[in-house]
From TrEMBL, chains A, B:
SUPFAM superfamilies assigned: NAD(P)-binding Rossmann-fold domains
Domain of life of the native organism: Bacteria
Protein name in the entry: ATP-binding protein
Residue ranges occupied by any Saccharopine dehydrogenase-like C-terminal domain in the UniProt entry: 157-409
Species annotation: Sphaerisporangium melleum
Keywords: ATP-binding, Nucleotide-binding
Residues in Saccharopine dehydrogenase NADP binding domain copies: 3-152
A molecular-function term among this protein's GO annotations: ATP binding
């Protein structure tokens, strides 16, 4: 397998050291708008000099860097062909999903992303009805992918991604009927400022966080999707492994759109443990129009306020040395167990920043997002997972995924509630 | 008097209809970086067709528009000479003070601004000691202005400006000794959004508001200046004419630097009735680094986050139709009266947005800032106020100013406390 990894940001730069230990692929071309960023990721891996377990290829033969504009569909198609890539691994902001997705289809390559094509609110009733939903543009093109014999595996990070695998696993192996599937994400991470004091610094792309948190959250219920006001239905969820209780609110997220397509459940929700401070920051950005992606003009130059917010904050990928704590992603399932009794479980995956920094030099949140698509690519490379068209993670057998994840040294857990 | 008015923003565009009713000047050249903005202000006045009381000049002969970059000192000097202007009236952000101030000196014109040259915090003890203070750069050049026989009247808006005139008036006519001079600014203005709901929209330049609110506030006490943490010493002040109690906090402002140079007082403070919501917005902007004027790079283009914040919010000058309420600026003096008894007065100026919109088509806050420098220019044009060097409003006799303000139809008030 030859992979075109588009995006050398937080997740992209964590993918390389994870993949470097595995031997399922021949080559990864790391592509970024800023070529020097892609080169830095490759150089770091070459300097580490680590070879795949049992492999004989040196890192300098398995990784290379190119400049690529993710919004330039023709350039991406050309890069896939020039580098003879079998799959495009999309690790950039979801606003670039569609050009990358179409470029892969045009080049005859498979496609993987960790966030689906963007939504647009309902024009008149945004907090009741969905408008264009996450992934709608991608699913609309599923017939073309099927006809071409290609696979687009969408939403294959941690959330969405592992969370969807957990939902399918619960349906296949733990439950007879499922009342509710609730994805719950929380952390106790703190970031120290240069002065040693705790500081405000988002641990994941603020661009994407704004997108998912300020759009109307979507809920699956009674066989259909509806939307609510941002930050609705606050609830305190007790996260495992010492993280403890965190206030979570409804957020627009892919799992709610993906899970019901393959798994039968009365209700599907996604709640994010943002915390009061982060919610206040997001509300303020919205109040000031700084969440907007519509350009404003500054002395003749057009810039998007949201891009400026992202550029003003520290790059989340660089925070690892100053972070402490753990992050947890998981899926809470309530229903009737195989024995006919009520059952409630939380399937989860926790990453300790100290561990991910020591083992991979990557901070916990981006490492956790990066590991699952690498596992999925390995299953595809080995032919364990196969498919055609546009598919979510829950379209595949979850068992080999969860087994292989353990082999990657990052086990998942299950808590009966 | 021929005037070069630099800046056709909120205050600049309110200056024109105020000045148009008066006959003390021959011509105002309205200059802006964006020529169309300057032209729009002039065209609006020409369309209104209003002539000065008793004057025979038509507006089209008294106002003209040019493009001018306020940061280009040589271009400003050339414009002053080309248009034979006697005075430069600075109505742009204070970051342009120094090039404009130096250009006026070079061209042999007088100079007036409404906010002094910028401060820089103390490098090691920013919340205890002042670093470079507001106006320091300007006062340092006072000898050159004196030698050239020119006048730079600095801080001559409403606050600073009228507030300083009030301080001098109290010292000259109301008090024997003054314990404290506290400038207090508050409003009950609300802005309606397009949906008819109250919305967040600053009624004055957010660029300047960030500058003054996030810098360490300065206090004059015991014969010297010291600084505090932003938003320190909150206090509820009861504003007159139905505005009522508003929470005020210490803010860095020119009056604290100007008043003690000419008026003897034990303590001088400035507190601004920001309100809890605005304070939270400013704190959040600071937390995210969006208050910064240091450019960030977005795909090769350098932009200042603070400029983007300003561009994302509605132009304060355009809010008048959607605003309701009153704004109050004033000076609270405590000390010993002429009769030897303790005395406490609040000298104030209130503008009702409904009135300023009806009378001048300008919203209350920018109108209130614009009227006082026009009154001052009239006093200078008529030779009632005279001076050399760099002087604040309190360097002049306050009585003719306060009398002429009444003639402008916007009376001031006094409340014994």
């Amino acid at each position: 397998m030859r992979i075109l990894l588009v995006g050398a940001g937080g997740v992209g730069s964590a993918v390389v050291p994870i993949a470097a230990r595995r031997d399922f692929f021949q080559h990864i071309v790391v592509a970024d708008y800023d070529r020097s960023r892609a080169e830095a990721v490759v150089s770091k891996q070459v300097a580490a000099g680590r070879r795949a377990a049992g492999g004989d290829l040196r890192p300098e033969d398995r990784f290379s860097a190119i400049a690529l504009d993710a919004s330039d569909e023709a350039a991406v198609t050309a890069a896939l062909r020039e580098h003879r890539c079998d799959v495009l691994f999309n690790a950039v902001d979801p606003r670039f999903d569609m050009p990358l997705f179409r470029a892969a289809l045009a080049a005859g390559a498979d496609y993987l992303d960790m966030a689906m094509s963007l939504s647009r609110p309902h024009p008149s009733r945004p907090y009741e009805l969905p408008g264009v939903k996450l992934g709608d543009e991608q699913f609309a093109m599923s017939p073309q992918w099927e006809a071409a014999g290609g696979l687009a595996l969408v939403g294959m990070g941690v959330e969405p991604g592992l969370a969807d695998v957990f939902a399918r696993y619960a349906a296949d192996h733990l439950f007879d009927t499922i009342d509710e599937i609730g994805i719950r994400d929380g952390a106790n991470l703190v970031v120290e400022g240069p002065d040693g004091q705790e500081t405000f610094a988002p641990t994941f792309s603020i661009w994407t966080t704004i997108e998912e948190c300020l759009n109307p959250p979507v809920v699956w219920e009674d066989g259909g999707w509806h939307t609510t006001e941002p930050f609705s239905e606050p609830e305190v969820f007790d996260f495992p492994e010492g993280i403890g209780p965190v206030e979570c609110v409804n957020v627009e997220h892919e799992e709610v759109l993906l899970v019901p397509r393959w798994v039968k459940a009365g209700r599907v929700t996604f709640k994010y443990g943002l915390g009061a401070e982060f919610i206040e920051v997001l509300r303020t950005l919205h109040k000031l129009g700084l969440d907007s992606t519509e350009p404003v003009r500054i002395r003749g130059v057009a810039v998007s306020p949201r891009d400026v917010v992202a550029a003003s904050l520290p790059d989340p990928a660089t925070l690892g040395e100053r972070m402490r704590g753990k992050t947890c992603a998981g899926t809470w399932i309530k229903g009737t167990g195989r024995d006919g009794e009520p059952r409630e479980v939380y399937l989860y995956h926790v990453v300790d920043n100290e561990w991910s920094m020591r083992e991979y030099g990557a901070q916990a949140v981006v490492w956790q997002t990066a590991v699952h698509p690498v596992v999925a690519l390995e299953l595809l490379a080995r032919g364990v997972w196969r498919g055609r068209g546009v598919l979510g993670p829950e379209a595949f057998d979850p068992v080999p995924f969860l087994e292989l994840l353990n082999e990657y040294g990052s086990p998942w857990g299950m808590r009966e509630q």
